[in-house]
Specification:
This protein is α/β, with parallel strands linked by helices. It is 39% helix and 9% strand. The chain has one domain. α1 links the parallel β1 and β2. It is found in: Membrane.
Length: 137
């Protein structure tokens, strides 16, 4: 199943039917894609969105980066809780959303390292390009 992991209904169906899933995404706002693919993502070293930091930060910038990352844990729990409940009821076992996303066969990531910072990628992550630009006349 080709699906978007932001709404994990496709992954719940793929898990139920025991078929492989392919994810197509730009990124999950709360960093759930890092957790599901087991990519290293320490908040003291990897710049967070809206901080305007680079990969070279001083101590106070690292602390700010860590503080910007704290709400992500609560955001993920709040947003994905209904899907975890739905998956647990439908699959008739206790399931979390990271467990569902961890089952993906391939992640097609729309990353462009010109706009994003370089990051480690796991073997099942394929970078397929980023921004689509059209020429103005």
């Amino acid at each position: 199943i080709l699906t978007d992991p932001v709404l994990p209904c496709g992954q719940i169906l793929a898990e139920h039917l025991s078929i492989p899933s392919v994810f197509f995404l730009r990124g999950i706002p709360c960093g759930l894609d890092f957790e599901a693919t087991q990519c290293p993502n320490p908040p003291s070293y990897v710049p967070r969105i809206f901080t305007a930091h680079t990969d070279r930060m001083n101590f106070f910038q690292r602390v700010k980066n860590l503080i910007f990352d704290i709400p992500n844990y609560f955001l993920c729990d709040f947003v994905f809780q209904p899907y975890a409940k739905l998956a647990s009821e439908f699959l008739q076992r206790d399931v979390t959303v990271p467990d569902l996303l961890h089952q993906a066969s391939i992640w097609l990531m729309r990353l462009d390292f010109v706009l994003d910072y370089p990051r480690p990628l796991m073997p099942n992550i394929i970078v397929i390009g980023g921004v689509n630009c059209a020429h103005k006349k």
